[in-house]
């Protein structure tokens, strides 16, 4: 039996083309040389777009072994001209619970919509403190029917963009 490719897995909700273009347009002034953390990476579309726009490194965290394997197989082809990026086959929550000391310029988090709750949101922001430095930009993709709090210690809301079933919320760490 043939394994399904990244594009054939209905459980993956890749960031849509409109949302991705909007994110890259917003982030373009911040991407040159940026170090990216892509949590719940799925197809890795956000990281690959950021690298194409000038980011120098991306760490993709994806728990599904087949998806992570496919991301790793794409790495040499798609990222040949960039600093080698990392694909970790690990649950994003476990990754967040064990900080490595690495700090990132831009963090993209796209937790599964079925898991999205105010408690999950609070936990996400709490853990992201360990991966952020002053000026870190955080993008969170979440279901359109949910509200996201603008009150997270250390983070200031920058803006929210709406895209059909999802929204992208932008935060900046260490600025008020």
Any overview of this molecule?
The chain has helices at 17-31, 45-52, 65-78, 92-97, 118-128, and strands at residues 35-39, 57-62, 86-89, 104-109, 132-143, 155-163, 166-173. By secondary structure, the chain is α/β, with parallel strands linked by helices. The chain has one domain (30-116, 124-168): 3-Layer(aba) Sandwich (Rossmann fold), CATH 3.40.50. It has a 7-stranded mixed beta sheet with strand order 3-2-1-4-5-7-6, with helices on one face.
Question: What distinguishing features does this structure have?
Answer:
about 30% strand; 7 strands; about 30% helix; alpha/beta; Rossmann fold; about 180 residues
Q: Briefly note the CATH topology name.
A: Rossmann fold
Strand count:
7
> What's the tally of helices?
5
Distance between the termini: 54 Å
Using the coordinates above, name the CATH class. Alpha Beta
Task: Give the topology.
Elements: H1 17-31, E1 35-39, H2 45-52, E2 57-62, H3 65-78, E3 86-89, H4 92-97, E4 104-109, H5 118-128, E5 132-143, E6 155-163, E7 166-173
Parallel strand pairs: 1-2, 1-4, 2-3, 4-5
Antiparallel strand pairs: 5-7, 6-7
Give a summary of the structure in a few sentences.
This protein is of the alpha/beta class. Helix content is 31%, strand content 28%. A 7-stranded mixed β-sheet has the order 3-2-1-4-5-7-6, covered by helices on one side.
């Amino acid at each position: 039996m043939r394994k399904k490719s990244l594009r054939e897995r209905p459980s993956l909700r890749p960031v849509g083309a409109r949302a991705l273009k909007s994110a890259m347009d917003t982030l373009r002034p911040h991407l040159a040389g940026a170090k990216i953390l892509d949590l719940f990476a799925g197809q890795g579309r956000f990281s690959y777009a950021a690298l194409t726009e000038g980011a120098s490194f991306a760490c993709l965290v994806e728990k599904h072994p087949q998806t992570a394997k496919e991301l790793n197989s794409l790495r040499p082809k798609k990222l040949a001209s960039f600093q080698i990026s990392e694909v970790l086959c690990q649950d994003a929550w476990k990754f967040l619970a064990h900080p490595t000391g690495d700090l990132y310029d831009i963090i993209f988090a796209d937790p599964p919509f079925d898991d999205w709750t105010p408690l999950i949101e609070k936990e996400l922001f709490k853990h992201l403190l360990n991966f952020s430095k002053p000026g870190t930009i955080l993008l969170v993709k979440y279901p359109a029917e949910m509200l996201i709090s603008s009150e997270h210690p250390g983070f200031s809301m920058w803006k929210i963009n709406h895209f059909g079933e999802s929204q992208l919320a932008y935060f900046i760490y260490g600025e008020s």
